[in-house]
Amino acid sequence: MGLRVRIIPCLLLDGSSLVKTVRFRNPVYIGDPVNTVRIFNELEVDELCLLDIRATKERRPPNFELLEEIASEAYMPLSYGGGIRDADTVGSLLRSGFEKVVINTALLDAPDVIGQAARAYGKQSVVASIDVRKKLFGRQEVLVEAGSRTASADPVAWARRADDLGAGEILLTSIDREGTWSGFDAALISSIARAVSVPVIANGGAGSVGDVGEAVRAGASAVALGSMVVFQGKDLGVLVNFPEPADLDHVTGRTW
Hints:
Elements: E1 6-14, E2 17-22, E3 25-31, H1 33-43, E4 48-52, H2 64-73, E5 78-81, H3 87-95, E6 100-103, H4 106-109, H5 112-121, E7 126-134, E8 140-144, E9 149-152, H6 155-165, E10 169-174, H7 186-195, E11 200-203, H8 209-218, E12 222-225, H9 227-230, H10 245-252
Parallel strand pairs: 1-4, 1-12, 4-5, 5-6, 6-7, 7-10, 10-11, 11-12
Antiparallel strand pairs: 1-2, 2-3, 7-8, 8-9
Helix pairs in contact: 1-2, 7-8, 8-10
């Protein structure tokens, strides 16, 4: 029997609202996060990931009041990223009802946070978020701060660094694919999955259940979905939804 592949809705917070972006730009309003979490409760999703797309850029901490309300409503494990600068913030988030924290910019600016959090709360609580964009001639670079600042020109080396620092998982996002419905960057997923000892969550580009299977075949241990679970379809209206479990089982070979 194979390991169960987790399928994780990845939701973007902009203030107190949920939004969806395309290539990290042009946020479109989706709805109220608490109500959306209630819908995902009914859909019995594996986990939820919430990322505040402005907290770090605006140099502000997480919105704990909102996050505690979300956690009080959620029946599934939660992860959160945005505005995490120190281990104390990690502890506050975990005490507020979140099982994992997602660390992106601090991997560049305050890398000790990852090790401190892993030692204090267990590495399973720490997810390193790596956002990758293609440059000219096919080269790739890692960006932080919601895609606004360069961190590294070598995604594989950056992923190994996160692994060595103590991250328990890697959330790997292709900026070029994010919100496009064009499928995952399988080559990127494969290169990172082969380079690290921890699970890789593929994010950015899912447009069909078949794309989910492609990410798993490329080496992803879990798959994050954005547009697919908040829109009726490409260029269609908002509709919170989730693929049929049997369809996911078929393309991923996941077991229960």
